[in-house]
Amino acid sequence: MTHTLLVLSLMIANRSSAVAADRILIGEVGSLTGAEATFGDSTRKGIDLAITDINAKGGVKGKKLEVKVYDDQGKPEEAATAMTRLIAQDKVTLVLGEVASSRSLAMAPIAERNKIPMITPSSTNPRVTKDGKKVRDFVFRVCFIDPFQGTVMAKFTRKNLKLSKVAILRDVGNDYSMGLADYFTAKFKELGGTIVADESYKAGDQDFKAQLTSLKGKKPEAVFIPGYYTDVALIARQARELNMKQPLLGGDGWESAKLYEIGGSALDNSYFSNHYSTDDPNPKIQNFVKRYKNTYGEVPDSMSALAYDAAMIAAEAMTKAKDLSGEAIRQILASTKGFKGVTGIINIDQDHNAVKPAVVLRIQDKKPHYVTTISP
Length: 376
Ligand code: PHE
What we know:
This protein is an alpha/beta fold. It has two domains: 3-144 and 282-356, 3-Layer(aba) Sandwich (Rossmann fold); 146-274, Response regulator (Rossmann fold, 3-Layer(aba) Sandwich). It is 43% helix and 20% strand. It is built from twelve helices and 16 strands. It has helices spanning 3-13, 37-56, 76-88, 101-114, 146-160, 175-190, 209-217, 229-241, 257-263, 283-296, 302-320, 326-334, and strands at 23-30, 64-71, 95-96, 118-120, 130-131, 134-135, 139-141, 165-171, 194-201, 222-224, 248-250, 270-274, 339-341, 344-346, 358-364, 367-374. The strands form four sheets. Strands 9-8-10-11-12-15-16 form a seven-stranded mixed sheet, with helices on both faces. Strand 11, helix 9 and strand 12 (270-274) form a beta-alpha-beta unit. Helix 5 (146-160) packs across helix 6 (175-190). The longest helix is centred in the first third of the chain and has 20 residues, at 37-56. The protein is globular and about 65 Å long. Phenylalanine is lined by residues 39, 99-101, 122-125, 176, 252-253, 255, 302-303.
């Protein structure tokens, strides 16, 4: 075989005919616009910082990493289209994303069908990596899952806050919200608590007063709202307008600087679970916070940190894999143990989830403050 032919067939074997030989193209899908734009924006920045670090150290297998990014506008159907385009047209080696579980759920079957590894930095619904009883071979995450997150908040509410009557307000169109509400409910009841009401809304609603009035009538000691920040901030304000003084409780979907901008003091004395806290003195975290601030002029939220970790794990797996085929990379990803991430030590379990502790944060004066860490 002539040299040219050999190179050509190697390129085809690597599915990289559309990609320059000196770089590896990976894909990213995120909500860069829409009601959850900070999710996509923070993830983008975290990945960018990681790619800069990886390339500064020589890249992967002697090649520079490059990222092709698509904005899904916060819509699952757009996330699916972007995933297909990344694989079929851009011929990426691996995909990072999405943040929201509903959108990762739209992408996961496409990753699976095409045997292209997908790492979601922050989708926490169990079904993202597991379709019924079947683990999706090519889909991974670097965060914990909602059965754990729901347990964390249920335990915290019962044991730390010592509350026994909670109302729930969930987002019906959101897989994450529905799942987390159910996991919280199950654990809270198991711990002797009562769910006095369970109401719902749809993302993008502007008026939550009917549901809040109904919840208020049941006299809950706290309201659990496992939604995303834009809706949650509006709900908090309207709850205070109705003179509801209870602490509000939530999950990682609250994580955004916009929560405080929109919600203001309505969120005082509320609590949510999260992936990490920038209050943590751990040098790995403080170093990351400092570098991120220097680069972007803002404090990294948990999506930035998880995105950084996801990109680093992807690079490590591509480096260790015997070649850049989806199969070779996914095998290394599946055996990831003891990876020292910004968000903690990452061990990938048999269901392709990272087993990690969660932190609980208390909001006061438009800022989250570290309260405690709860381990699996
Ligand atoms: N865990 C959320 C989901 O699965 C997304 C999210 C992660 C939001 C981290 C904020 C911070 O939908």
